[in-house]
Amino acid sequence: MLRVQGVSKHFGGLHAVEKASFDVPQGLITSMIGPNGAGKTTLFNVISGLLPQTEGRITFKGTDITGWPPHRIVAAGMGRTFQSLEYFDNLNVVENVIASRFCRTGSSLLESILGLPRDWRERRNNRQVAEELLEWVGLQDRMYFMPTELSYGMQRRLEVARALATEPDMMMMDEPTAGLTQSIVEGLMELIGRLKEMGKTIFLIEHNMNVVMSISDKVVVMNFGEMLAEGSPAEVQANPEVVDAYLGVRV
Ligand SMILES: Nc1ncnc2c1ncn2[C@@H]1O[C@H](COP(=O)(O)OP(=O)(O)OP(=O)(O)O)[C@@H](O)[C@H]1O
Ligand SMILES: [Mg+2]
Fold first, then answer.
1. Which phi and psi angles does 62 have, rounded to 5°?
2. CA 185 – ligand 2 centroid, Å
3. What is the pLDDT of residues 177-191, one digit of tens each?
4. What is the residue with the minimal CA distance to atom 1 of ligand 1?
5. Which pLDDT score is estimated for 245?
6. What is the pLDDT of residue 107?
7. CB < 8 Å & 24+ apart, contacts of 45-51
8. Residues 6 or more apart whose Cβ sits within 8 Å of residue 160
9. Could you tell me where in the chain the CATH 3.40.50.300 domains are found?
10. Multiple choice CATH, 2-77+168-247, 3.40.50.300, 3.40.190.10, 3.40.50.10330, 1.10.3720.10
11. pLDDT tens for each residue of 30-52
């Protein structure tokens, strides 16, 4: 689904990402782990077009997307959630999801302003899709809440619904379970499992080792901007370098 080849991102002299190369296989859950500051979010930002890479190539569904702007990458089927939650805080929950559908909406600004039939149909359709997505993530009772009125776990679910609204083939999630209590983490893991069942490819950044080891098909380990290892959860856990650099103790 995704191929990262020799990708580096330097901020001046700081090598945030240095020659990362790995694949994210289609239909599976791949997790990226590594200590704070290892370059994980930076690599996500480069892959999703938010930051230009210093060198390297990124291929998505067989197309070289290196240097594409973010909206074009979203339209190609790459959705993502953010480590810091991103939503419009002046829009309610359902409006936030509708706003994410912009890239799947064909009517022009003029058609919207004039309220031409294609625009009505799209609006009705966008609203219906948004409501279905909110039901799917378990927010059907909170459609008219403002995002700030939601618990943190619910805000994470809103992020998932917003990303799904772009109709992605691959969902990238930056620390979806950060700051959540165990019972809420389990609900989110169940949601991620359902995404996989839907046929989505999942690419996560995750710190919670229980989550990583139980749901991942593949794990990529970053350390100081470099890739330390990749493999199945069992392979990564048994890798002495990974244990020394990151896991600390053998688990
Ligand atoms: N826009 C930027 N300008 C300069 N340096 C940056 C920028 N973004 C990130 N960095 C630096 O790049 C390095 C990697 O940061 P990054 O946020 O990618 O790490 P991370 O692996 O996501 O960490 P965490 O687990 O804490 O989220 C850090 O040293 C960070 O300070
Ligand atoms: Mg990060």
1. 85, 0
2. 18
3. 888 888 888 888 998
4. 11
5. 78
6. 56
7. 46/7, 46/9, 46/17, 47/2, 47/4, 47/7, 47/78, 47/172, 48/73, 48/74, 48/78, 48/80, 48/172, 49/73, 51/9
8. 81, 137, 171, 173, 176, 191, 195
9. 2-77+168-247
10. 3.40.50.300
11. 999 999 999 999 999 999 999 99
Q: Which residue has the tokens 């219906």?
A: 128
Q: What is the pLDDT of residues 185-232, one digit of tens each?
A: 888 899 899 999 999 999 999 988 889 999 999 999 999 999 999 999
Pair of tokens at residue 4? 């990262």
Q: Which two tokens stand for residue 232?
A: 């199945």
Contact 119, 112 (CB under 8 A): yes
- Whether residue 121 has pLDDT greater than 80: no
Q: Please choose from 9, 40, 54, 222 the residue to mutate so as to test ligand 1's pocket, defined by most ligand atoms within 8 A of CB.
A: 40
Nearest CA to ligand 1 atom 19: 37
Instruction: Please tell me the total number of residues recorded for the chain in this structure.
Output: 251
